[in-house]
Every structure is written in C-alpha cells, then in structure tokens.
Amino acid sequence: MNIVLRHTALAGICPFVVFLASCASGSHSDPTSSNADVDARVSALVSQMTLDEKVQLVHGNGVPAQRIGGPFPPGVNGESYIPGIPRLGIPPIESADGPAGVTVKQTNATALPAPVALAASWDPKVAALYGGRIAMELRTLGFAESLSGGINLTREPRNGRTFEYMGEDPLLSGRMVASLTKGIQSHKVIGTIKHYALNDQETNRIKSNSVVDERTMRETELLAFEIAVKEGKPGNVMCSYNLVNGTYACENPYLLTTVLKNEWGFVGVVQSDWGATHSTVNAANAGLDEEEPGEVGGEAEREIPAFTPHFSSKLKEAVATGTVPMSRLNDMVQRKLHVLISTGIMDDPPKRGGVIDRSAGNIDALSIAQQSFVLLKNVVPSSGQKAVLPLVSNKLSSVVVIGGHADAGVLSGGGSATVPAENGNAVANCQYYVNTAMGGCATWYKSSPLVAIKAKAPNAAITYYSGTDANAAATAAANADVAIVFATQWEAEARDLGSLSLPDTKSTPIMAEYDQNALISAVAAKAKRVIVVLENGSPVLMPWLDNVQGVLEAWYPGVQGGQAIADVLFGDVNPSGRLPMTFPQRDADLPQRLVSHTNLNVNYDEGLLMGYRWYDAKGIKPLFPFGFGLSYTTFAYSAVTVRSDGSSNVSVHFTVKNTGTLAGAEVAQVYAMLPAGLGEPPQRLVGWSKVFLAPGQARQISVSIPAERLATWNTGKHAWQINPGKYVLRVGGSSRDSSALMQDIVLDSGRL
Ligand code: BGC
After folding, report:
1. How confident is the model at residue 306 (pLDDT cuts 50, 70, 90)?
2. Is the pTM of the predicted complex or chain greater than 0.90?
3. Best mutation site among 196, 299, 307 for ligand 1, i.e. most ligand atoms within 8 A of its Cβ?
C-alpha cells in the first residue's frame, strides 16, 4: 500500500511540492486593514466623483447570466455587473457564484467537492487551496468577485443548503471560511462571506424571521462570522434574505453597523443577497452598501411580487432630499474603492478571455476530495480476520457495485452553488432529482466510481446493479466477495429536506428511484460483506448500520469523486476527514421538531445548544458524533499539559503517536468545559491540529487557545468576558472520544 501524505503539501510549503496545481501565489491582500496610502487614494477618487457615478458603484444592474437587466457588454455572463468609471481608472466589477467552484456555464470550470466536504478536511490549508482554485478560475474568466464563503451554521441539518456551508461549530466554520477567503483574495479576487445572518434554513427564506436572543446569536452563528471576518478579512459580506428579530437582515442596523462594522471593524462592503433589499432609506442608513442584483432578477423576480430596485434612482433621490446623508453614500463608495485597491483589482483588473487549466483543476479537486472523506465504520466481518477496508485488490475475485448511479458518476448539490457538468450530465433523468422550489435538476459529474473501482481490481469480476431491483442486487451480492452500495441524498437551495432519512420512492418520490434503506438492508441480509458509500450534503440516518461492515462518507465529492472514492476504498489514500456536524440517530433527536412551512417565526428555542452542544446537554447519543472519523491506522494521545500566559490565553500541549502500521492523519481536537453555573453547554471546541504521522511516529502538538475562545457573551455589558474558575480541557479524536485526556486550569475574570 502506498499512502501518500498529500496533506502536508498544501499552501505553507508549496515550493517543495510538485503535484499540487494551485500553490498560492500573488500578494496577500488585506481589504479590511487600515492603510493610510489606500485611504488617501480613496478620498481623492471620491472627491472627483459625481453623484451619478457614486450611485452607479453601489448597485448591480440585473443578472447577466439570465440576461435580466442590463444592457450588458458582450461576454458579461455572471451574477452581477457594475460598470467601471474609465475616467477615474475604476474597472468594471463582475461577480460569479459560487461556493464549490465557478458556476458560469461553458467555461469548463472545476467542480470541487462541496464546502461541507472541505469542512470535513479540518485543514485550513486545504481551504486556502480550495479558495485559490476558485479565484484563479474566476480571474482567468474576467471576474473580480467571488460569491463563495457560505458559513451559516448547521442549526437545522435538514436545511437544503447544508452542503454549501461548513458544519455546526462556530470555530471550525469560522476558521475554514477565513482561510478560504484568504486563498481567494490572494489571487486578486474579492471574497464574499454569506449569508449574514441566521439564515439557517431555506423554507420561506425570503419571509422567515429568526427569533434569537443576543447571547445565543453572539455565541453561535455570529461568532462564526466574527472569526471569519476578523481572520479572513473578506472584501464583501453578503446579508441574507431573512429577518432577524423582526427586521430584514439587509436593513438591520444591529447586524450591519453595530456589530459588523463598528464592533468587528469591517471596512469592506455589505452586499445584499439577490433580492434581499427591501427599502432605500432604512437599508442605506442601517449599513447596506450595495444592492444586488439591483434590477429584477434571481430571487427578487421569482419570489418578490412587484420588485423594484432600491439603490439606483431611489437612492439618488434619497440623497438629494437628505433622507440618506451624502456621508453615507460616500462611505458606501469608499468601502468599494478600498476593497478594489487593497485587493489589487484596481491596478490589475482581471481580463476576460482566458482558458481554465482543467488538468490543474482536476488535481486540486482530487486532492481535496481525498482529504475530505470520513470513514464512519470499518469492522471485521464475521467470516473474516481483517477489517473490511481497505480492499486488497489481489484478494478480490468478485465485487458487486450497487446503486446511486455509480456506473455513471457522482452527485452534486443543487441551486446557485452547482458547477455545470460541462461534458454532459452523467444522469440525465429529470423525472427524479428535480428542485421543485427553484427549478432545475440534479447535476451528476461523469466521474464513475464503478470505472475507478474496476481499474483498481483489474483481475476481479466486477458487476453493477442499478438498485431498482433489490432482490437481484442482493442475490448477486450473496455470491461476491464484497458488495459496495452507493446511496445518495440530493439537496438543493430554496427547499429543505423533509427528513434526514435516505430518500425513497414512498416518502420522497421525486428524490429516489427506489427505496434506498430497503436496498441496503436486503443486500446486507445476504452479502458476506457490505460497504455503503454515501453521497450527501446533510447527515443521513442509517437504520441498517449494524448490518453493514463499512460506511464511507464521501459527501458531494466533485468532478474527481469517483477516482477519490476508489482511492480511499483501496487504501491508496488513508481517510483523514472528520465530521463537521453531528449525525443523529433519528429526526426526532433534532432540536427543531420539524421545519414549519406555516410559522414564519423560526424560534431558536434551543439557545446555545447548537449541534453537538444539544446532544451533549440532553444526553442524547448521536449515531456519529461531531469530530468523528476513522483511519486505516490508529493514534494514541499522551502527556497533556495546559498553560496560561496570565491573560487567559491558554496553550495545550500533548503528544500524538501513530500506533498503527500505515501513515495517516489525526485531527487532534481540544474541547473546553467552562466553569459551572454559567449556563454554558457541557463543552465547546476551542482548537485543533491536523497532524500527519508515519507509522510509529510521535509528535508533540501545541494548540493555542486565545482567551476569546473561552469567553461568554455578557448581555448586560454587550461584551465578551472571561469568567473566573476552573476550565477543563479535553484532548482527543472526537467530541465524544471516551479516552480523551483531561487537564484543568484556573483562570481569573476579565473583559476582552
Ligand atoms: C443565493 C446566493 C447567491 C445569489 C446569486 C441567491 O439566491 O442565496 O447565495 O450568491 O443568489 O446567485
């Protein structure tokens, strides 16, 4: 077995690496830092601009891709377009989605694994690679702005956009999105963090009102944004469709000005989601800086009757009459210019007409997929002596591959994050997998797991069964060395899942061609050994778990997914992903009983108990806990010590050893249990380190935990505070690692 430590090769030590395509290059830009030269240049430009020119810079002109609005110059085909002002050297700005790669058609862009998969890598260097890949392709095509960077927390895992985000923990999500954003902006492309804020489900997304108390929002979702904004320094923050405590997010002064701009020091642009602007004066004065798409189009046209743009002629009028002060319009324009200058776009705007280097993109897509899969189960079958995975090709004489269109390709999530399948949809069956809310069908990339599996085991007889006939598949499986069943859960923007159960023909007829749970159970009842491979965006329920020997979580694995799946199944790559969200045993274990279609108030009644915090506090055993994932090797922890620097910044030191016979990566996680009596959940993630170890190798790890990570939100003082008392630090391989090491430390009180 040849285990390649691809992981260490990302970003930091790029010069030594030859096989990675997108070693980050270019200057690191910092659009939210203050810089006297940039400020002086911005002021000089603003002083020369007419009112019309200023207004021109703060709104889009429709959706070029849909040819709505405009007129657009030839070749403009993204999600928004703001013309430049040539006399002042201000370039035009065109944006494009999205979170998993460039979504513009006929560009041959690379479809990366879904962002949730990226989160499962738990590796900020992989996030930088991911962002860099998107940005390089955008720039090649002439785009200056990327609509990537989804960060809404998995409060409701049935959210149809769970695949676009980074899981349920504010620190993991915040850090990964920060690194993604730095990767994007290092290529002179504006990064956008979205959707601000508390836009945690799709049902009624244009009208729903997230009802949430101050402490909950500050310690959960806003904390993810805070980390991403402060560390990632994005040029843009996109405000969301929903209302927050009765006020639309895009005209919410608390969110946009009090918190984002004043408290966090964000000096970039607040851009509305497409059609999320509802007023001129309220929105402008609350802190919105840019209306998108600015004309009818996108969500605005589809979901808001009689939509009219708010930031073009209406804003001009409002400034003329003084209901929006000229200083506010100047501030909007200054922000835009600041971002353009400090990202390097002003002096080196992207040029249209480049050709994407797809072989380089494929290398990155494969590498990211290989690092994102999570091995959930791997046990010794009753008839054998070794765990079912990795498969050993020269010991296999017959393999049955079943279901999930594994003969044709791999699935992608739907909506504005879908990167087109340029060489044709691998599964062109729009009777199933249709997005009833937004239109469009599922996209499948032609990266067939079956073909890749056949290449790994050329001497084995490998047969494929579609899964529509469970009996036939089970009978074939009974005679094979191993059965590999592929299961899919398709989710898409603008609608939520009814259940985390794998779709079947009875409950979700448009989502599946057969009953997937019944198929897996039928195969498991007869086969000698069964491996289930999941392609999904949200957690799935596994009523058959006890009867299968292996489960591999492959998410939506991108355009190289089939190859990456085979690489992990056959052990050419040792799986190193960890779950970025809890997998519950049943829907009834979720904090929110159901996603209501009639109640427009989304009440965050669970308070601080988001994700694993809920399961920990309620004593509910998850199917698989947050942070969980197996490897083909084993790791042991020892010698934990904890130190504080006197200002409540803590560092945790410990040793991790690879105790197995194969090279592999461990995600060493540090959780903190805060002093009793604070009303805090039992534990929170405060740091981690992904460490790559050769067989037998041990390494001393230090994880720094800044005081902020141990703080709670004081609602009386509207500030973070450190509480005096005993903090217990747990170090281990998941949020529920029963052999985690513990050390405590006493801290004094303090405000941050
Ligand atoms: C989505 C955004 C997306 C925008 C432009 C909206 O419907 O919520 O995430 O960036 O459309 O496509």
Report:
1. low
2. yes
3. 299
